[in-house]
Amino acid sequence: MSDEYTLEQEITLLEQDQALLKETLSEQRAKFASAADKAKVALKAQIQETERELQETRSRLESLKIEAGLVEIEQKTTPAKLHQVPPLPSFLENVPAQLKEMRAQLVAKPSPSEVNNNQKNPLVLYAPSGMGKSLLASVIAHDELIRRNYVSGIFWISLGSEPDITGLQMEMMRNLTGQNANFLDSEEGLSTLQAYCSKRACLVVLDNAWDVRDILAFSGLGQYCQLVVTTNQKELVEYVSHFMAATQHYTVKMLNTAQSLDLLKHYAGMKDDDAQFAEHGETLSDFCRGIPSALKLTGALLKQQVYTIPKLLEQLNSHACEDLPDTQACPLMRAMRVNVDSLGDASEHYIALAIFAEHNRIPVQAVLMLWQYLYHLTAEQAREFIIELSEQGLLELVGDLKTGYLSLQVAHYDYICAEAEFDKLHEHLLAAYRRLCGQHGWATGPKDGYFFEYLVMHLHTTQRQRELKNLLLDFDWIRTKLAYCGLHSLLNDYAWLQESDQDIALIADALQRAAPRLLSQLNNVEGVAAELLNQLWVKPSVDIQKLLNHAKEFAHDWQPPKR
């Protein structure tokens, strides 16, 4: 009863503070309107400080009202649709008390400064990899009250160190409108998103951000739109605060001993009265240093009865930190080493996932194809292995085992990259795809969500420059890639050789010049052929002439433009 009384008292005091701050702000604005120019600088600073205090008070008040059950969800509002948001686990690990504060800020009405900045103040969640910041962001995205506030949609966008920002912007526009979106660069993408979202309420989660420019490419979408950013790059928090002064940032902290034991017990499937856990559980928990991912990996091994706790501790301590990737915490890398070793010969299958360009979006179909080629696994065996890896905490399956994709944490990916033999894996992946294409050429490859998107990257990495040039001079590749991936993706293909090959540079320039017309007829083979002919018909090289001869087969009525 006393707790409830204290909560009610605090709410009352905050309401009084809010009223006083509103009155102060009104007086400051009145003084600003009539003040001389010299005095306005100081008054403006005072107004900004009062607005900040008012926003903090409003957020705290909203948080307490939610806690006290005084704020009810408006049932008439349909919860926002989730786009690419990871599913929540059955057991939520590391959900800090900060969640209430963040939740309150997300559902609060825009402050005057947020209206002026044309976006709600961004939230940035920082922690080293494996600490649960993406999980916390996922909890936020799934929250029903938040979903009812961002009715235009909640969008999960995985960034990483080298994201295709324009492609991600196009994907968000497709999700918003239900129609294909095509633009050539991130500046056009941002302006398109800003125009469409200006009167809408969207929540955009930018997961695993590395570069402030990637964040700015989704900024200023509207006064009712919000950015939530997760990052393991500490300096990025400062950069974001520099460009977006009102950014709120939170550090996800390590679990304490009691929380660690509870989480370890859950993943190990052990009960409170388990004698082994009672004797050794705290020692194993201390080894993991409160890192949720390390606790999950070790707990999964215990649940599968791969090791007893004493034997697991022996295995974990047998690996020196110097022999493991130094990009992540040593306990997490030790847990990865023991988990991967426990797979036996099948560890090669898991390490082979390092060859895929995006660790957080690996299409299941592409994985099945590679494993079938390399290890002669049937589709059923491959799917069973994916489930095993998921249960062991080594990856996450998003969607189903036919059309879904695999997502690896940054720590998982760093580990398998350190173990992988990339030269061989690149060759194996290309050989597997070549077998699917047969004698008909690369342009007949599978539409599995990976092949058309990344074939050129793999050819360039293996230094097959002549083969890559032949591909980029193949009209079948051009028309198929345009229809399936769009002009932006095709131009990215040409960027690999554009600076070193004159023919490739000429075709890339021609595609850029024809962009306005190509964007309206990506599936029109005759139109695409005619545009290339119009742009390249004057004194082409021998190689480009072969391309044009092929294009003419689809543009029977084409005639050279009159000069």
Q: How is this structure best summarized?
A:
With 563 residues, this protein is an alpha/beta fold. The chain has helices at 2-34, 37-67, 98-107, 112-117, 133-142, 144-149, 165-177, 186-197, 212-216, 234-243, 257-268, 275-288, 292-303, 309-317, 330-341, 347-351, 364-375, 379-391, 410-419, 422-437, 451-461, 465-472, 475-485, 487-495, 502-513, 515-518, 525-536, 542-552, and strands at residues 82-83, 123-126, 153-160, 202-209, 226-231, 248-251, 362-363, 396-398, 405-407. Strand 8 (396-398) and strand 9 form a beta hairpin.
Please describe the structure with a list of short key phrases separated by commas or semicolons:
563 residues; Helicase, Ruva Protein, domain 3; 6-stranded parallel beta sheet; 3-stranded antiparallel beta sheet; disordered N terminus
Q: Topology of this protein?
A:
Elements: H1 2-34, H2 37-67, E1 82-83, H3 98-107, H4 112-117, E2 123-126, H5 133-142, H6 144-149, E3 153-160, H7 165-177, H8 186-197, E4 202-209, H9 212-216, E5 226-231, H10 234-243, E6 248-251, H11 257-268, H12 275-288, H13 292-303, H14 309-317, H15 330-341, H16 347-351, E7 362-363, H17 364-375, H18 379-391, E8 396-398, E9 405-407, H19 410-419, H20 422-437, H21 451-461, H22 465-472, H23 475-485, H24 487-495, H25 502-513, H26 515-518, H27 525-536, H28 542-552
